[in-house]
Amino acid sequence: MMTTRVSPPTGTTPPQRWRDTLLLLGLLVLVLAGLAGLAAATGWQETRDQLLRLGPLQMALLLGLSLVNYAMRGLRWHLFARRVGLPPDLVRDMRHYLGGFLMSVTPGRVGELVRVRWIRRETGLTLERTAPLFLMDRAGDLVAMALILAGALALSTSGIAGAVPLAALALAAAAIATNSRLLTALITRTYRVVGRWHRLFGRLRGMARTLAHFSHSGVLAGAVALGLVGWLAEGYAFYLLLAWLGADTSVATAMAIFVFATLAGGLTGAPGGLGGAEATMIALLTLEGLPPETSIAATAVIRVTTLWFAIGIGAAIFPVAERLSKRKMHAVENR
């Protein structure tokens, strides 16, 4: 019986995972220490009283709105997956997308490329064909968040210094990263300057050309719509949280603060925006006139019900996705 040779899958190696885990734990300790220090300076009792305002039903609603975000973005991943030629399988695509959340705390979230590894194992599609999915997913989030931030700023009576340039930067980055012709030209020009690593640049050009599959206006419109619904759900969750904690903040202002802090945290390059997002959120809430204990409590809760909830979902699904992908890979090898 002939066997089909399968190239070693790409992805995060075990030593890299250990390094990422240690980095995550170190950043988490620093963030927790910072929040604890602020709570101690403000008064433990005051912060505790704010947290006790939230009951099980309220926490369930916050988590439910986060699930809406994850579901919408998972559907967007499914939409993109169809464009690169993957057989239609919503369950498979949602498993890959949600399982990849475990790796969202790697620097720059590059660990989420594990989704590409699973796809390669299960379908045999090449890296050049599927890697652009990762780029389109990131770009989809940037576009949705930039549009929400711009709209929220227009409706809010409060301004955020640097918010407009940040929204413009996010849109520009998304436009450049998803422009097939522009990226292909940039890669070709870079290769001519470097004059080496022919195979690497050849693969990069192949990936850039694959982006043309996503240029259909209907696909882009659907992707933006799904991203908007998802991120609006989490922004609204932040508004509800502030209201439950007694803050008199408008929906537009709450959404602007949430999205701006999330984008600002991402710019730091830290895993999951840890540290940067929390510091930005607390600072903006304080500038809005909220007492420190409310700002600290709101920031801690929203990060638990968004970032850490997503990591928890990823931790539950990751082993399943890994096991199924290996099983299907072995089935291909033994044909």
TrEMBL record:
<keyword id="KW-0472">Membrane</keyword>
<dbReference type="GO" id="GO:0005886">
    <property type="term" value="C:plasma membrane"/>
</dbReference>
<feature type="transmembrane region" description="Helical">
    <location>
        <begin position="296"/>
        <end position="321"/>
    </location>
</feature>
<feature type="transmembrane region" description="Helical">
    <location>
        <begin position="142"/>
        <end position="161"/>
    </location>
</feature>
<feature type="transmembrane region" description="Helical">
    <location>
        <begin position="211"/>
        <end position="232"/>
    </location>
</feature>
<dbReference type="InterPro" id="IPR022791">
    <property type="entry name" value="L-PG_synthase/AglD"/>
</dbReference>
<feature type="transmembrane region" description="Helical">
    <location>
        <begin position="238"/>
        <end position="261"/>
    </location>
</feature>
<feature type="transmembrane region" description="Helical">
    <location>
        <begin position="167"/>
        <end position="191"/>
    </location>
</feature>
<feature type="transmembrane region" description="Helical">
    <location>
        <begin position="273"/>
        <end position="290"/>
    </location>
</feature>
<feature type="transmembrane region" description="Helical">
    <location>
        <begin position="51"/>
        <end position="72"/>
    </location>
</feature>
<keyword id="KW-0812">Transmembrane</keyword>
<dbReference type="Pfam" id="PF03706">
    <property type="entry name" value="LPG_synthase_TM"/>
</dbReference>
<keyword id="KW-1133">Transmembrane helix</keyword>
<keyword id="KW-1003">Cell membrane</keyword>
<protein>
    <submittedName>
        <fullName>Uncharacterized protein (TIRG00374 family)</fullName>
    </submittedName>
</protein>
